Amino acid sequence: MRPLRGPALLAAAALAGCATARPTAPVCPAGHDARAAAQLVFGRNIGEQPGVSDEDFRRFVDEEITPRFPDGLTVLDAAGQWRGPSGVLVHESSKVVLLILPTNGSADKPIAAIREAYKAKFRQDAVLFISQPACVSF
To answer: Residue 81 and residue 126: Cα distance in Å, rounded?
Structure first.
C-alpha cells in the first residue's frame, strides 16, 4: 500500500488518536456477544508491480497472524486502488484479514506487530487497520 494522500490522509490524521481506543460496545440481540471486529488490509504490490504471491501471503498468515490470533480468522481476496505520487490511479490486488478481537483488550500489540512485520517483509508503506464494534454469534 502506498502513502495516504488528500482526503484519505485527512481521515487518517483525524482518526490517529483512535489507534488504541476500544470501540464502544454495541447493544446486541439475544444470543450475540458484544465484541470488536478488526480488518487488516494488505496490499500485494511491491513498488508498483505485483510481488506478494498467494504462497507468500499464506506463509505470512501461518507465521505471523495465526500465532497471535489462534482462535481463527478469515482471509478475503480484494482489489484496491490508490493515487500514486504521479497522480496516476494504481490498481492493486490485496488481502483482507477479518478478526474478532479478544474481550480482554490484548489485541493492540499483536496487531501492531503484524502490521510492522508485513511492512518490513514486503517493503510496504502501510497496512490498513479498521476496528469497529460488532455483535457476534458462533
So the answer is: 13
